[in-house]
């Protein structure tokens, strides 16, 4: 089981749960499993091609998955995935 | 939000040093009072018109804030050439409804302007900045 900490902007989707859990062999599979419980969650994180949205950061433990194998990054039981909105804006 | 005058000066100095590019940083503290300022790196593709905090720095800073028992009370960024109010992009990408978005404008180079806003669900509300000596 992998622990997933979700952004405050996603709490409506998770019915208020800041921490949720799911099974999966990769970060993407975990998010896919969570999407079954909380429809719409996956679309908030990545597009249909599995690319993480530019202004969303997905971390596996202490590393941004963009620096690993993105959503194909393998996960182990006990890992923690964190989803955080990027700090971004522009004129 | 309450912060010391030295922090206001630090944010303005960061903005001036970074101009003409936008700069970004995090304000950490509790109960709306800022205890520490973290400068961060803007890795946007077009930093003169956008800010995007380095994702690794973001996590490192957020973890440090957590370890102190603080909250991320504010996020600051600069508008080198536009007014100190959230742009449409700032509003669209604002992902932290509990934080205060501080914007420093250098539109008038001689007189930087700093304002603060709550941004939630595409609505903005100005927040008072209480500066402590």
Describe the protein in words.
The complex is a heterodimer of chains A (91) and B (133). With 91 residues, chain A is α+β, with helices and mostly antiparallel strands. In chain A, 18% of the residues lie in helices and 26% in strands. In chain A, strand 3 (56-60) and strand 4 (63-64) form a beta hairpin. The model of chain A has no long low-confidence stretch (mean pLDDT 95). Chain B is an alpha/beta fold and 133 residues long. Helices cover 25% and strands 39% of the residues of chain B. Chain B contains 3 helices and 9 strands, in the order E-H-E-E-E-H-E-H-E-E-E-E. The longest helix of chain B is centred in the first third of the chain and has 14 residues, at 5-18. Chain B starts with a strand and ends with a strand. The mean pLDDT of chain B is 97. The interface between A and B is medium-sized, with 20 and 33 residues. Strand 6 (88-90) of chain A pairs antiparallel with strand 4 (50-52) of chain B.
Report the order of strands and helices of chain A: EEHHEEEE
CATH third-tier fold name of chain B: Cytidine Deaminase, domain 2
Shape of chain B: globular
Write out the strand line-up for the largest beta sheet of chain B, numbering strands in chain order: 3-2-5-6-7-8
Question: What is the helix content of chain A?
Answer: 10-25%
For the record, the CATH architecture of chain A stands as Roll
Portion of residues in beta strands of chain A equals 25-35%
Total strands of chain B: the figure is 9
Q: Largest chain interface and its two residue counts? A: A-B, 20 and 33 residues
| Secondary-structure content class of chain A | alpha+beta
Largest sheet of chain A: 5 strands, mixed
Q: Which homologous superfamily in CATH is the superfamily of chain A? A: Beta-grasp domain
CATH superfamily of chain B: Cytidine Deaminase, domain 2
Tell me the radius of gyration of chain A.
12 Å
Q: What is the C-alpha radius of gyration of chain B, as a whole number of Å?
A: 14 Å
Which CATH C-level class of chain A is it? Alpha Beta
Q: Give start-end ranges of low-pLDDT stretches of chain B.
A: none
CATH topology of chain A: Ubiquitin-like (UB roll)
Multimerization state: heterodimer
